[in-house]
Amino acid sequence: MTFRHRHLLGIEPLHPMEITTLLDLADQYVALNRAPQKHSDALAGLTQVNMFFENSTRTQASFELAGKRLGADVMNMAMQASSIKKGETLIDTAMTINAMHPDLLVVRHPHSGAVNLLADKVNCAVLNAGDGRHEHPTQALLDALTIRRAKGRLHRLSVAICGDIAHSRVARSNILLLGKMENRIRLIGPPTLIPADVRDWGVEVFDDMRAGLAGVDVVMMLRLQKERMDGGFIPSEREYYHRFGLDGEKLSHAKDDAIVMHPGPMNRGVEIDGTLADDINRSVIQEQVEMGVAVRMAAMDLLARNRAAAPQGVMV
Question: Alpha-carbon distance 21 to 43, whole Å?
Answer without folding.
Answer: 18
